[in-house]
Amino acid sequence: MWLIVPVILVALAIFVFKYVFSSPGPNPFETDTRGPLKKMVHDMKEKNKVLKQGFVASKVPDNLDAIIIGSGIGGLGLGVLLAKVGKKVLVLEQHDRAGGCCHTFTEKGFEFDVGIHYIGELMDHTPSRCMLDQMTNGQLQWEPLENPFDQVVLGPPENQRRYPIYSGKTRFLEELKKCFPGEEKAIDEYLKLAKKAGDGIWLLALLKLLPSPVAKFLVYTGLAKRLSFFFKMAPRSLTEVVNELTENKDLRAVFTYIFGTYGNIPKDASFSMHSLLVTHFLNGAWYPKGGASEIAYHMIPIIEKAGGAVLVRAPVNRILFNGSQEAIGVSVMKGQEEVHIHAPMVISNAGIFNTYQKLLPKELQALPAIQKQLSMMKHGEGGLSVFVGLNGTKEELGLKADNYWIFAENNFDELMVNYMNGDREESAKKVPLVFVASASAKDPTWEERSPGKSTLTVVTFAKYAWFEEWKDDKVKNRGPEYKELKQAFIDSILKMTMEVFPKITRDKIEYIDAGTPISNNHYLGAMKGEIYGADHGIDRFCPELYATVRPQTPLKNLYLTGQDMFLCGFTGAIAGALTCGSVILNRNLHLDTIVLAKKTKRMNDKLKGDYELLAEVGVGCYGKVYKAKEVGDRQRLLAVKKFSIRGEDSESGVPASMIREVALLRKMEDLNHPNVVKLLDASAVPVGTSLDLTLVLEYIDQDLLTYLSKVPATGLSRERVKDLMRQLLQGLDFLHTNLVLHRDLKPENILVSNHGEVKIADFGLARMHTFNMALTPGVVTLWYRAPEVLLNSAYMSSVDMWSAGCIFAELFLLKPLFQGYTEVQQLQKIFEVIGLPSEKDWPKDTPVPYSPSWGPKGSSTKLLPNLGPDENDLLSQCLAFRPSGRISAIKALSHPFFARHPKSSVE
Length: 907
Ligand SMILES: Cc1cc2nc3c(=O)[nH]c(=O)nc-3n(C[C@H](O)[C@H](O)[C@H](O)COP(=O)(O)OP(=O)(O)OC[C@H]3O[C@@H](n4cnc5c(N)ncnc54)[C@H](O)[C@@H]3O)c2cc1C
What we know:
By secondary structure, the chain is an alpha+beta fold. It has four domains: 23-140 and 287-376 and 556-582, FAD/NAD(P)-binding domain (3-Layer(bba) Sandwich), CATH 3.50.50; 146-284 and 380-524; 609-646 and 654-698, Phosphorylase Kinase, domain 1; 704-898, Transferase(Phosphotransferase), domain 1, CATH 1.10.510.10. 39% of the residues lie in helices and 17% in strands. The protein is built from 37 helices and 27 strands. The protein has a seven-stranded mixed β-sheet with strand order 8-7-16-17-18-15-19, with helices on both faces. The protein has a five-stranded parallel β-sheet with strand order 10-2-1-14-20. Strand 11 (316-321) and strand 12 form a beta hairpin. The N and C termini lie far apart (101 Å). Residues 69-75, 92-95, 100-102, 115-119, 315-316, 349-350, 354, 383, 385, 459, 524-525, 531-532, 562-563, 568-571, 573 line the site of flavin-adenine dinucleotide.
């Protein structure tokens, strides 16, 4: 008997391990989809074309794979994950714009955020950051807040104490210790406990992902609590834990101040939930550059690219089921009409209460499994936000990229209980807590978008019941009593704010209004005006709840995503999307984000050790080119090229041809010639069926195309042409001697340094693709292509000599010699100059038949009338039709052109 327990435990451990690490489904993070940064769009009318696409039945795509109800980050995030593996998804939003809590609105020219003020864990290469970069194709940028990122203000103006909260583990501790001398032990212990509890969050995800019987086994045997300090600490209240640490009331308050980010006062808050927030901001806080609307703006196109759509003014009034209790679609209210849309899968981001209590038919609502889940959750607290539009810049108004948590005193439990349980008119006059944030001060694009203006958003808690009587009135027209109550809140909130920000005076206010819990109901679909969805008090963190409320609901084909599925906050809601996506796609996406982060970090560390990236200088179809500087004594300038190359065959991984190309690039590292760009490092990391390639090269700031564009109309001197051409041929001879064919020689791939040195670039990559470092138009030109390549015949190193001949002519003409736009036209242009070859010279292996109609007969040794005999002779030898008759680089270098220099008629 005593053997059975360890055997079961080992079997369970093996099962869990296998389950977690086996990921048979498609991976949305398989390829790095970050593209070059596009110019930011500030024009709200333009952005609204993406964010405000109104619902009409004709815009619903056919053959949907899934319908998502709600366009919060939990809905859009999941939509992107599914779209990235090719699924066609329809996201339906009840409000008139997409984004949920991430939406923004504009009043009197002031743009306000609703539910995004700061987000943690977005340092480079964290799983969160890498995931968001992929989910926005690298377009969403994050701006760090100041350090200190939060300021805690306690007490009335006559006895106000301010405590700055710094990020960085060491700084956080050091600065707190400066404020509270003698409390060092308590401060160290607090962070130690918070980190230990916060680190246990992995089990939360696991309980939702493991097969239900396994998750329940972990819960009911008590293993979940034993395995994770998070669940061990979860039943302990925040007040209880901090009271054990210190007697200092201000320090207790500073330990607990951030409860406002999840909405439970310290005596009701779980220490574990609190610890997640403390660790979330331990490495800093970030704000989306360009405002919160950027989030949805960059996600929607990814959903659309896969054939899906994000439609607003689309309130779902019920979920449709077949006779077997399987979700088969949704019904959307269009005016008084119901529009039915069908899909094999319905996912709700509308919150657990909306989904189960409003969108299910009564008989399914009554199912015991549904009732059980509902009985485990309760509504969270309501929120009230005051939006202030100000005249003045951030400097004039004393605003910074940080947040203020202002409390009437340090006894938070007492203050909040009195306030929330008090008479509403009295409570309105004595708001005990406000959170103050200025989006305009955080966003570096603000000054450009709204010069001379600023915004403030001030948030506090408020009971839904205080406002419920007006819930059915028309929005913005709820009558004088509602207005009066709102005004009372605005006045007391404003007073508290102005006491801390003396430069903000009433005369600076151009716009002010408040959103109450019933506004949250209207605009965010929050059933009871909740600020963070379902309640996050101690009961939420019993392991049984996590093993019971899971993405897969008791009803087939119906899933839940977003904050109620995991935790509140931007990161919590997106974790809900990852959890739901993991279930739908049958792979552990949490793990995938960790792998993605490790991979990106590995690549960057490799580079960072030796180089510092300075600026992006070019883009190509497969990646980016950066200007970089060598770290250390030499400080050489470098070009760093990053590519992600997709495999041809998803079954067989990275194709052998690519491996050969990379091997060639590695060989090039050992080759050293003054006329070939030095490849300093080439690294290739296979990622699934793709290859992430990084090349580090010496940096040369212009290519031959740019160089020629600056030459005066009188042209280049003969000596200069000779010098350029000699260097080019020397480089080519070196490549050919080392059995390297360039195959894509053209002015864009030949670099000319400021000292006139010529360097051949982009060798070895030609077969994979072309990649122009200079910002030339993205056409792959035919103009330098040898006839045997155009005729699809066998070729050798002489193809490079043909291109060299074309470039030689261009050095005189300052324009390309043969400018065809199709392969046929290109051949015709060539034959117009060199004459049509005889039929016996026509390649035998070409699929293109010989025809006298291709061009005029005969070969010419005087190809360009304005060139002298030496130039024309060298040119005609480079442009010989038969590859075997074409001059080699080494022979060309001994051509009389380089020895003699009669005057050219072009000069
Ligand atoms: C005032 C405030 C400040 C906040 N500040 C921060 C912060 O600084 N940092 C942070 O990380 N988090 C913050 N949060 C929390 C964070 O914004 C949310 O936890 C998170 O964005 C929730 O995302 P979600 O996708 O789960 O839900 P939501 O964003 O609420 O999305 C749900 C969507 O479903 C729609 N919907 C509901 N019912 C229907 C229906 N029947 N048909 C169609 N659509 C429907 C809603 O309209 C809504 O758009 C804040 C929240 C608020 C309210």
